Amino acid sequence: LNTGGAPPVAPTVVPPDARRPSTRRTTGGGGGGGGSRREPKWHILQRLNYAAAASFLSSVLYFASDASRFLNDSASLLKFFAGWSVFLCYFLGFFGISFVDADGLEEQEEQQQGSALPEEEEPRKQRGSTVKEQPRGMAAGGSNHDVVGSASSGPEKKNKLHPPASCTPVCSDPAPASTPAPTSKGEKPNLKELSDAQLAGMVLSGKIKDHQLEKLLDPRRAVQVRRLAFDGKLSDLGRGGALTDLPSTPSLDYERVFGANCEIVVGYVPLPCGMIGPLTLNGETVYVPMATTEGCLVASANRGCKAISQGSGAVSTVVRDGITRAPCVRMRSAREAAELKLWCEDPDNFASLKKAFESTTSFGKLLSAEPTVAGRNVYIRLRCFAGDAMGMNMVSKGSLAAIELLREKFPSLELVALSGNMCTDKKAAATNWIEGRGKSVVVEATIPKDVVRTTLKTTVKSIIHTNVQKNLIGSAMAGALGGFNAHAANIVTAVFIATGQDPAQNVESSNCITLMEETDDGDLWISCTMPSIEVGT
């Protein structure tokens, strides 16, 4: 490749056979290689291996043909054992030596004979790569060519150079992108003084790991360099410019993102955030943010807020509060597993678990420990009050302390996983629907029949009928688990994203059953019961 202002020099294309001499030809004599050492004659060893294997199998078959006679003849038996011992020593010491991968040996040979190659070929030979034809205009002279080279036998491995995308003009010459700025001998280049294109080239060549860019540079510049590097990788797949429309500047504070929210950052996805309300809730007026890309969702939810506030307002109650973690431990026997279960259910022993758990936190309180046995496995579902925190880190640290205490009481206990999937986190599970996880909430409201007609554009009887046929019967026929509602997941996810909650916990947080009744006055009474909302407040 042309690396300067001089006209590009056409590379010399050497046939593969000329550039990769046979091992057998070069190991026969001692001269001509400039100090090359003699290598074993692999083909002879290979034939010896075949001969040894054939002789061994023949002796075994011969012995098996008249085993009873040989077993009764101690002299013959001794000869067989002696011969087989020799074969065994050979197999353990030498068998397979001729089947080793000769790629490494050939590479050494090429390095020793590299002086026979043209100067243009040497760097490419050492890389053992195939340089694909570059886009027109990549080299200063505009010359396009293919250079074929491989240091391994068989099908050639093609390690593609990752050129920058055509829409990124910062690296019209690939040389600066792959070569650090010149420095004095032995001095490491100051990465912050290099251009973004040079740094991206170092990432592509493996000299810098892309996940280390924030530490080597600063978080904001790391994003720009990483975008260049990934654009090069995508260009090699024919998808150059895929990141062009992904914003990366200037609004996101990457200093806050680094080490906390996301790794290998190349930008951010802007989401529109709407606001619904006013909503009268527990006698107060609240406004709720919703981040979504689904049209009409915010408008629909806002209409619901209006209808609720035009009536009596909503009243909500937290009926249970406790985040859970269920370590999976394994005992030597089912009997020991049952003993562990009974031990945990003893009130005095639970007090010891509670003390160990709460030694790791100033706020968390262990509320219960419910063990479930499955053979030798025990799943101990620990429920912790986490206060304003969502509590996953809190309950995980406390659970580990509780397990250490159990190890002292049951030395054979083996911790399989700190989370045994009976918690259950980010998966649909009946245990969350029945026992709850996080905040278990019930909320109700009464909406006057006139509001139902004017704001919701329906009637009380019609909306109740639809709720029964769809949300209750329809969901039951589908075998729904916690999905006896219209689309609770839509609203929960939009609120979670807007308020910085974990969107993946929408799975269990959207567990909801919607019930509707007609009051004696003909108004609409509606309630939502949600047993497993996992939020930090």
Please summarize what this structure is:
By secondary structure, this protein is an alpha+beta fold. It has helices at 16-19, 23-26, 42-65, 67-72, 74-93, 103-112, 122-127, 174-178, 196-204, 213-216, 219-236, 254-257, 297-310, 334-345, 347-358, 392-409, 430-435, 449-454, 460-477, 488-499, 506-509, and strands at 273-281, 284-291, 314-325, 328-330, 365-374, 377-385, 414-417, 438-447, 483-484, 512-518, 524-533. 40% of the residues lie in helices and 16% in strands.
Written description of the protein model:
The structure is a single chain. The chain is α+β, with helices and mostly antiparallel strands and about 525 residues long. Helix content is about 40%, strand content about 15%. The protein contains 21 helices and eleven strands. The strands form two sheets. Strands 3, 4, 5, 6, 7, 8, 9, 10 and 11 form a nine-stranded mixed beta sheet that branches. It has a two-stranded antiparallel sheet with strand order 1-2. Strand 10 (about 510-520) and strand 11 form a beta hairpin. Helix 3 packs antiparallel against helix 5 and helix 9 (about 195-205) packs across helix 11. The chain is extended, with a radius of gyration of 36 Å. The chain starts with 15 loop residues before the first helix and ends with a strand.
